[in-house]
Amino acid sequence: MARWRRFMLRLLYDNKIDRAAKARARIGLAILLFAAIYSIIALRLVIFAAASDGRNPHRAVTGDAIATARPDILDRNGEILATDVRVPSLYAEPRRLIDVDEAVELLTADLPDLDATESRERLSSKRGFVWLKRDITPEQQREIYRQGLPGIGFLNENKRAYPNGPEVSHVIGHVNIDNQGIAGMEKWLDGHGLAALHMAGLATDRLQNPVQLAVDLRVQHALRDELVAAHTKFKTLAAAGLVLDVRTGEIIAMVSEPDYDPNNPHEALDPTRINRLTTGVFEMGSTFKAFTIAMALDSGKVTLKSSFDAHGPMHVGRFQIHDFEPENRMLTIPEIFTYSSNIGAARTALAMGVDAHKAFLKKLGQLDRLRTELPESAEPIVPRHWGELNTITIAFGHGLSVAPLQALMGVGALMNGGFLIPPTFLKRTEEEARALGKRVIKPETSEMMRYLMRLNVEKGTARKADIPGYYIGGKTGTADKVVNGHYSKSSVLTDFMAVIPADKPRYLLLIMLDDPKASPETHGFKTSGWNAVPVGGAVVARIAPLLGVEPRLDLPDADHLILASMKESR
Amino acid sequence: MTFRILNLIVIGILILAAAYVYRIKFDSTVQAERLAKIRSEVRRARDSIAELRAEWTQLDNPARIEGLTKRYLQLKPITPAQFDSLDKLPERPPQFFKLDSPDPIGAAIEKLEEPDTTGSLAAPAAPSAGHDSPVDDSAPTANPDQ
User: Fold this and answer.
1) Cβ contact B139:B98 at 8 Å
2) Which of A4, A37, A187, A488 has its CA 20 to 30 A from that of A385?
3) Could B83 and A551 be called an inter-chain contact, meaning their C-beta atoms sit closer than 8 Å?
4) Which residues neighbour B63 within 8 Å (Cβ) at sequence distance 6 or greater?
5) A286 is catalytic
6) A78 at interface of B, judged by CB pairs closer than 8 A
């Protein structure tokens, strides 16, 4: 180091330090400095020249994209459920406007529904930018453009379009005017990263991956069509239906009639149009007997041959429990199920005990809020002090209100071999479902339950749903509705859960009618067997070919097919 | 003197380089403009595709198709009785001639002249769909089981 320093000194000042040498050295230093500065400037110029070639991509998009883009929503077969279309919107820059009155006059001529006074007010303001009308047609845009008004312009915005109208409304939900999801799967999309993208201004492109749902548009339409027909035929307050894949937990169709058109989101505000399947809780009635019987069979203490006393009425404290069609004798388990005996179910549940009953329903997810992708969900109404009386009533489906989707999930577990699989609106494979599902009952119990479900269609309350070829199994339910805190004698809620086919279950169908009226056609009855069951049968006949369920016409009855195969496997 | 010539050469090179750079820059501007134009065309095309797809979906909506079908066609929903399984298909009728023989008609006549091995009745003139007639194994068959 010292040698280098000495060398430099000699180079700069010679050996003797004199003024001339010092000046030379200073000039040399200045030259070096300027050379460095100029080379930096040159380098920057090169960088600018190179960079300005790649244009800012956002510059080309001026006049575009105020509302942000959303990915398309597809059904399971790739049909579009929701997509973005570009629509022109009309704006004005009041400062650049010459004659406000002329502008208002010409604009209202082209847009008859434009409010003249409000527009005049907006145009007279001193603001730089005002919206005049969002979402105008291309023809209107052409007309206004032709008038050549200064200070009036158009911006292309993304607008959400739902080409299927009200068909899938409750599943996909809808968006607000700024294209943000406010209900259904649209809201779920926002919650899963889309909102953050919007915030960063990145979601203006169409190249986002579409989201595929589990819903099948054809099945959804068939279900909705039948429910709309039932809605008018039985003069119900509401009619709802759900199709669930029992092996994967996918929701293939979900309809809650009356529904709304997501293209016209004002309709969604009407409280009668809520989604009853996830947002409402109901006492499901006799379909809950499936849980009671499954609990008894799964405990191993009760077999299909066991019988319980069904002499009525049953007195509990100051309450009396009646059967709809009293048999007044000992009933076996299949008889309790097919005659839908309240007393039989109550005695079965009592034999298992209050704690076991509560634990079993907890295991099947009936006591906790069920959350799906949809933002809307409802907490089940569980009695605070669960005593013997509660067990008795809950055994036949009163005194515990659950979301219908929740009940269907539980029955799905009874059907599919004993796996409780959380339902989903997104596509899911069987392997994924198996990883998610947890075993809640033994496979033998599930087989016995399928036998009972089939038996109920062959001989019990669901005979009107026996569509030949599809081997339907089902359980009916009729619950008295609570009106002003009392059980109403006149209005009921009927439901029907069907499994197709009962020997190798693939799909589970729920039909729920709120307050169906009796008619001469139903011989004055309004129990489930006269309204929900025939609707369920009609739905199965329509959707089974769409779902690829193979019709088999020469199958033996439940005793020979399901029961016999159970005995063989043992 | 040499210094002057060197200067002139350097100035010449400088002018040439400037002209060249200017051309490159100009070309790149033209290219960039073309790119921007194509981009906006692509965007417009994509927008109209989206619009047409939305319109197609609207026209393809099951409710609309159902309404049209009910009005103009005599189609009815499928019933379970209309399905059958493949193994219930009847046997394929016997093949009377080889497809690849040079004289298919002659071969068919020869086949007909052979005595029927199963029936006591005389062989019919036209090939019948007899289920137990001998099937020519060498002929190409469309039996799905094979």
Assistant:
1) yes
2) A488
3) yes
4) A164, A165, A167, A221, A225
5) yes
6) no
* Chain B residues within an 8 Å CB radius of A206: 46-47, 50
Chain B residues with CB inside 8 Å of A161's CB?
Answer: 54
**Do A494 and A476 contact (CB within 8 A), yes or no?**
yes
Least CB–CB distance from A60: residue in B39, B53, B54: B39
Q: Does A206 touch chain B (CB under 8 A)?
A: yes
Rounded CA separation A248/B111 (Å): 57
Task: Choose among A55, A84, A218: nearest Cβ to B36.
Answer: A55
Per-residue pLDDT tens digits of chain A, which is 570 residues long:
778 887 776 776 666 667 787 888 899 999 999 999 999 999 998 888 777 554 544 444 444 445 577 888 999 998 899 988 888 888 888 888 888 888 888 888 888 888 888 888 888 887 888 888 887 887 888 888 888 888 888 888 888 889 888 889 899 999 888 788 888 888 888 887 666 666 665 555 555 678 899 999 999 999 999 999 999 999 999 999 999 999 999 999 999 988 999 988 888 888 888 888 888 899 998 999 999 999 999 998 888 888 888 887 888 877 888 888 888 888 999 999 998 899 999 999 999 999 999 999 999 999 999 988 888 888 899 998 888 888 999 999 898 999 999 999 999 999 999 999 999 999 999 899 989 899 999 999 999 999 999 999 998 888 888 888 889 999 999 998 888 778 887 889 999 999 999 888 999 999 999 999 888 877 888 888 889 999 999 999 999 989 988 888 878 887 777 777 776 665
Domain boundaries, chain A: 12-51, 73-212, 219-569
* The token pair that represents A191 in the structure block: 């919650």
Judged by CB atoms closer than 8 Å, whether chains meet at A85 and B54 is answered as: yes
Tell which of A56, A59, A79, A546 to mutate to test the B interface (max B CBs under 10 Å).
A79
pTM assigned to the model: 0.76
Name the token pair of A516: 């169906």
Q: Kindly determine whether residue A85 and residue B47, on different chains, have CB atoms separated by under 8 Å.
A: yes
CATH code given to domain A219-569: 3.40.710.10
Residue type, A143: E
Tell me how far the alpha carbon of residue A510 is from its chain's centroid. 16
Instruction: Name the phi and psi angles at A549, rounded to 5.
Output: -85, 125
Instruction: Say yes or no: A161 contacts chain B, CB-CB below 8 A.
Output: yes
Distance CA A191, CA A172 (A): 14
Contact check, Cβ <8 Å, A541/B62: no
Please give the CATH superfamily to which domain A73-212 belongs.
Penicillin-binding protein 2a (Domain 2) (3.90.1310.10)
B54, B66, B80: residue with CB nearest A553: B80
Same topology for domains A73-212 and A219-569, yes or no? no
How far is B23 from B15, CA to CA, in rounded Å?
Answer: 12
Rounded CA-CA distance A255/A171 in Å is 8
ipTM of model: 0.71
Among A256, A286, A340, A446, the active-site one is A286
Q: Which of residues 222-281 of A touch B (CB under 8 A)?
A: 222, 225
